[in-house]
Amino acid sequence: MIHIKDIAERPSKADIEALAKFSPATIHEAQGRRGALSSRLKPVDYRMKLCGPAFTVKSSPRDNIMLQLAINYAKPGDIIVVSAGEYEEAGSFGDVLANACLAKGIGGLVTDTGVRDTLQLRELGLPVFSLSTCIKGTVKETLGTTNDSIIVGGEIIHPGDVIVGDADGLVVVRRDEVMDVAKLSQAREDAEAGYIASYKAGKSVVEVSNLEAVLKAKGLAVEI
Q1: Which of 145, 142, 163, 144 has its CA nearest to residue 153?
Q2: Do strands 42-43 and 155-157 pair parallel, antiparallel, or not at all (unpaired)?
Q3: Which residues, including other chains, have CB under 8 Å from residue 190's CB and lie 6 or more apart?
Q4: Under 8 Å between Cβ of 118 and 133
Q5: Cα(145)–Cα(70) distance, integer angstroms
Q6: Are 132 and 43 in contact (CB under 8 A)?
Q7: Is the pLDDT of residue 1 over 80?
Q8: Residue 197's pLDDT is what?
């Protein structure tokens, strides 16, 4: 028997909003270069951004029955994350299901299979990240699971982990680390703002990054 499960625990809205201020690249670096999903997963539109708790789905390739169930049971703000075997030759999601997501207030979709109706998806504005774009239809035959740990884009994703995405890519943050990672991300942005101010003040990249001793130890010889 297959059981539909909800996320056991979602991070607070305040914690998610704190993390949403930062880019996936900043978050990835701030949390020790962890959590970046495969760069093969791309947004349908470069302007799309998402940040929310992962409602995880295990689906069979070329079958979207579990995706439809996830849309039915996900809560507003959830990001539906689908593991479908990295199968590129299927359009498992399009404008009809996107409208269903928007009607429920779902925060976005990440899937390691294909989507279609990309022009309409751009117009609708629902954030959608996928492995491919494909017009081939899917069946509704094989049941899977919801809100178990899955692997998508080479990363383990637990239900309730926070997924952050923009034009550059996707990153996952563990549910119990969200606020700590937000603070680390802010510290990184503050440091980078300092670097930029130093460049504008006339300092070189070698000076700002304290590279002189490192380069000398590596035997760099500058001939200009």
Answers
A1: 163
A2: unpaired
A3: none
A4: yes
A5: 9
A6: no
A7: no
A8: 96
Angle (CA) 164 82 84, round 5°:
140
Total residues found in the chain within this entry: 224
**How does DSSP assign 61-124, residue by residue?**
TTB-HHHHHHHHHPPTT-EEEEE--S--S-B---HHHHHHHHHHT--EEEEEEEE--HHHHHHH
Nearest to 181 by CA among 51, 32, 54, 78: 32
For 123-158, the pLDDT digits (tens) are: 999 999 999 999 999 999 999 999 999 999 999 999
Average pLDDT of every residue of the chain: 97
**Alpha helix positions (H), the chain:** 13-20, 24-30, 65-73, 95-104, 118-124, 178-200, 205-208, 212-217
What Rg do the C-alpha atoms of the chain give, in angstroms? 20
Helices 95-104 and 65-73 meet at what angle, rounded to 10?
A: 20
Q: How far apart are CA 48 and CA 168, in angstroms?
A: 10
List, for residues 4-58, the tens digit of each pLDDT value: 999 999 999 999 999 999 999 999 999 999 999 999 999 999 999 999 999 999 9
In single-letter form, the type of residue at position 151 comes to: I
Rounded to whole angstroms, how far apart are CA atoms 149 and 172? 13
Pairing of the two strands 128-133 and 108-115: parallel
- Whole-angstrom Cα distance, residue 143 to residue 59? 7
